[in-house]
Amino acid sequence: MKCNNCSNEATVSVLTTVNGQSTKKYLCEDCAQRIEESNAFMIHNGLNFDNIFSSVFSDKYKTENAKRCEECGTTLSEIAKSGTAGCAGCYSAFRQELLPTINKIHGTTLHKGKLAFGADVKLKQKRQITQLEQNLAKSIEAQEFEQAAVLRDEIKALKKEGDLCG
Asked: In this structure, are 161 and 135 located in the same domain?
């Protein structure tokens, strides 16, 4: 395969994802080195991803007595500094705080990656149940109890169907 920047043989592949759109470039060693040097220049001048990521968090999360992830003990401040979560549990522990940032970075909060065989059916079913639960809450709030009962029964049926398929 040829380098995307010149006609040399490509030895490096670079995958870049911006707003959920992934692009893959193939580079020769020289072009990859030039890109790495320009990235080092940006980092040296304070333009690195960690600074951008941490800037979207408010200072109110940078306290000593901050909430910690129950699984790994990471704080939101530490996530902001490193740009990475400590473990999968961090996404649950800091869900409300991370969602706006994830949305800004990826353009969505829904996973759009590859799914295991059959997982797309379960994911659609889970999304349908979530939508029905939201409608149920609205019906209860509006005191539309007959509609709420219908929605409740639909949710139960879908959950039971999911148990049989899973």
From this structure: yes
